[in-house]
């Protein structure tokens, strides 16, 4: 019996939360979303029992012409709020909190990972946004795919970074400063490493995964996306961070259908495999997707099995503390005390076993 898993880096929707729950991921931490779309989903997740719970950053702070705008053309986004000088940072933070954001997300991305060149949020604006978030008592997290971006996050005093950088192995001075500042790293390796390691196609071929995904998600998981990313750098960085005592958390960047190589829920299990490959033990990898993430994000009611905690455990065959892949041997998942009984037909809504063992379609 395990606590429900927590994916510390997603971009989610209703379908994503429903898919995640089938894999024992009972909470997702959304790292950027359109608030008008996310608000009703969050409400629904509190009243229905076939959706994982979710927290969100709302809009991320991005350069008006920078990442991720180049990926969102044609998606009919409303006007994206931003801050281009430090004095605008407090209003940006206040705006996101008024939308229900649980933490603040800042993009520092020059486009190199996408084989292009993009303008970035200036370091002084990043620092001002981090300061404004801390003044309001919330965390500020920074998107980093390069060592330069990671250094900007450290210099700004961010609470954590939402990705490991791939262009080089993390340097000793950055590790020391992260440890001294109490920062954490969300590793987020399945997506950029998909092309070099074949993660998505291999995971999709696992019957424990394929049986819980509909055809569209199976196809999405099997698609590869070529990034300028070097997985061995990331694996080495995990080992160095772990050995130095910098907390690493598990995240995937799972998003909507069309974001290739990923599937909500399923991809987190492979992120745990990659964590173990970097140095942490199976038990340490599990805590990176349960207790440690819950504690860092102030979710004191989950990530553990104890009196008073949310009743969202996962029952698996085998012992994941010695064989980590056993996390995919799912026998049962509970959502706030309601047992999800897989229907056995992918693409259909799951059925539920109520508190007395009665099974009904949809919600109890």
Structural write-up:
- With about 375 residues, the protein is of the alpha/beta class.
- The chain has one domain: Metal-dependent hydrolases (TIM Barrel, Alpha-Beta Barrel).
- About 35% of the residues lie in helices and about 15% in strands.
- It contains 14 helices and 13 strands.
- The protein has helices at about 15-20, 35-45, 90-100, 125-135, 145-155, 170-180, 190-195, 200-205, 205-210, 215-220, 230-245, 265-280, 280-290, 290-295; strands spanning about 5-10, 25-30, 55, 105-110, 140-145, 160, 185, 245-250, 315, 330-335, 340, 350-355, 360.
- The longest helix has 14 residues, at about 230-245.
- It is globular and about 50 Å long.
- Residues about 190-195 and about 345-364 have low confidence and may be disordered.
Number of helices, where a helix is a run of at least 4 consecutive DSSP H or I residues: 14
Distance between the termini: 23 Å
The residue ranges in which pLDDT falls below 50 over 5 or more consecutive positions are 192-196, 344-364
The total tally of domains equals 1
Helix percent reads: 25-40%
Shape: globular
Order of helices and strands: EHEHEHEHEHEHEHHHHHEHHHEEEEE
Number of strands: 13
Strand content: 5-15%
Return the CATH topology. TIM Barrel
Q: Largest sheet at a glance? A: 5 strands, parallel
Tell me, what is the CATH class? Alpha Beta
CATH architecture: Alpha-Beta Barrel
**Radius of gyration of CA atoms, rounded to a whole number:** 19 Å
Q: What structural class do helix, strand and pairing data support?
A: alpha/beta
Mean pLDDT: 88
Q: Name the CATH superfamily assignment.
A: Metal-dependent hydrolases
Q: In order across it, which strands form the biggest sheet? A: 4-5-6-7-8
């Amino acid at each position: 019996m395990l606590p429900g898993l927590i994916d510390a880096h997603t971009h989610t929707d209703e379908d994503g939360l429903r898919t995640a729950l089938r894999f024992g991921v009972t909470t997702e931490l959304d790292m950027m979303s359109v608030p008008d779309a996310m608000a009703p989903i969050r409400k629904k997740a509190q009243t229905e029992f076939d959706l994982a719970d979710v927290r969100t950053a709302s809009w991320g702070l991005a350069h008006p012409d920078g990442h991720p705008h180049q990926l969102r053309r044609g998606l009919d986004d409303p006007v994206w709020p931003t801050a281009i000088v430090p004095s605008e940072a407090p209003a940006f933070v206040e705006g996101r909190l008024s939308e229900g954001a649980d933490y603040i997300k800042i993009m520092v991305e020059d486009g190199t990972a996408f084989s292009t060149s993009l303008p970035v949020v200036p370091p002084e604006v990043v620092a001002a946004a981090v300061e404004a978030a801390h003044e309001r008592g919330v965390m500020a997290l920074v998107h980093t795919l390069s060592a330069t971006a990671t250094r900007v996050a450290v210099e700004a005093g961010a609470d954590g970074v939402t990705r490991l950088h791939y262009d080089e192995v993390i340097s000793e001075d950055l590790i020391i400063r992260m440890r001294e500042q109490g920062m954490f790293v969300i590793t987020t390796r399945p997506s950029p490493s998909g092309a070099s390691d074949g993660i998505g196609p291999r995971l999709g071929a696992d019957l424990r995964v394929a049986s819980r995904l509909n055809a569209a998600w199976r196809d999405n998981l099997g698609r590869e996306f070529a990034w300028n990313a070097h997985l061995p750098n990331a694996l080495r960085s995990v080992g160095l961070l772990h050995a130095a005592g910098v907390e690493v958390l598990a995240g995937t960047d799972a998003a909507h259908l069309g974001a290739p190589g990923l599937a909500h829920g399923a991809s987190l299990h492979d992120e745990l495999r990659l964590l173990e490959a970097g140095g942490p033990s199976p038990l340490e990898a599990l805590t990176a997707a349960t207790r440690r993430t819950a504690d860092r994000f102030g979710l004191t009611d989950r990530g553990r099995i104890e009196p008073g905690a949310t009743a969202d455990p996962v029952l698996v065959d085998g012992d994941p503390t010695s064989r980590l892949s056993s996390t995919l041997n799912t026998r049962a998942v509970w959502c706030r005390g309601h047992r999800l009984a897989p229907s056995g037909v992918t693409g259909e809504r799951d059925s539920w076993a109520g508190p007395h063992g009665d099974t009904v379609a949809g919600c109890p």
